């Protein structure tokens, strides 16, 4: 949008000014008085594409706006909005300001009022109606004392916001600029970062600049609550702690705990964990409530949803996601089955030259076979008998669905189950059908190691999970048993982005995002994963053939006998063909003789 140098005057006086609070001092309104201070603060905005949206209660005359515009020598876009204390008007003003905000750059919303109710209601509403997004700066200017403004703490702490308090008690005008630090207990005094007097102008009182970045690194280590559940490479640990409620404190050990520790060191915070009762990621029920970790997040009981959570439209509607921690698709894990003797093993000694000779003679046989087969009934070459053997190896979801003996294990309370249940077309409706037929069982992630031992190893069940999770399961099993009993499909489906989550519109999310982006770029996540999961690559790219030295039995040699029997049949055929052709030739020549004789 080209908003450079444009200035517009929007006057939304919806109703005449209603009952006013007594003015603290003289008759000049706050806006006029604060103009000089505001100029000093707003002139720190260097970008010419800036915009200021000024919101006041209904006590300012239109003249004041014009004066102010003239006084603030700035190329920025200006929007003036005036509301009365009536709630409905505030909403209209915010809607109008929101439209302007969408078309503007570097927006600073300035709220000027001496009415504490108005200040509180308009700032909390600007947050709720998303007039303020993470990048928007908020400046409130008032003549009220700090003691009357406790209610602002909550909305100001989580925003890029400053408060200017004007003080005329000592005869001349003086101002203080305050910042509310995030995640401080209710009632914590705001931090004074600058002061202003007519002859000294604006002076910073700390090392912080105006509109300091409060979230890239917390200035005062806050305590945050993270929600997590245990899974294969992320173990729950319960500690005795007299200070904790119930005498027990939970923590975790594993990949995501490492990620959270990294975030806490980078962002300067301490943390504790909560865990949902059901130990799931969480899906939405018919009433719109979420279960599992998503439930904890939507009820506002945690600041960080550690997850990592698959990004889905429903979840994105209620929480914000960081930069992806992982991108993964679902794969199918199945038992590898026992080693089987290769009936064609006797062919192994054959060297390449022998093979060439064999191939040439075989192609001769094949040719005969093909010629014959085109005359034979198709029943002999019934394809099905070959296919069932081949598909005992699971390659795709299709294979699982087509094999009625296979039972699927899906993760309970996961987005995947919600996804296939909601599917209206395609292969996932068949998964829902399979569930109705009793071919699906549900496990929490923590139950998977038990299931793979009892159910998956012997081949009746398969697990559908993300590749990294399956790898972990396989690696853990390998570490225990010393052999690879499982494999997973090459085909993936339901590819999703996985990220850490935070409360909607909370600036904590973009600052965690920056750290997670750095973590991914430096390959830390993959490195940590290898570290927490020993043997994670042991069961990858396994040979499909292994050599075992054992005594042979007749059943192992059926390949040999098949060749023998085939050879006999073939020679019998050739033999009968010979007899047949001789008889046929005799018959033909004798009938020809008869014809010529006749
Ligand atoms: C982190 O928080 C501590 C405790 O409040 C504070 O002393 C320290 O200066 C902070 N660190 C940084 C780098 O801001």
UniProtKB/TrEMBL annotation:
Residues passing through the membrane, by range: 353-376, 557-588
Pfam families noted in UniProt: Lig_chan-Glu_bd (PF10613)
Localization, UniProt: Cell membrane
InterPro entries: Glu/Gly-bd, Insect_Ionotropic_Sensory_Rcpt, Iontro_rcpt_C, TonB_box_CS
Ionotropic glutamate receptor C-terminal domain location: 235-535
GO biological-process terms attached to the record: detection of stimulus involved in sensory perception
UniProt membrane topology term: Multi-pass membrane protein
Signal peptide residue numbers: 1-19
GO cellular component, one term: plasma membrane
Membership in a protein family: Belongs to the glutamate-gated ion channel (TC 1.A.10.1) family.
Official protein name in the record: Glutamate receptor-like 64
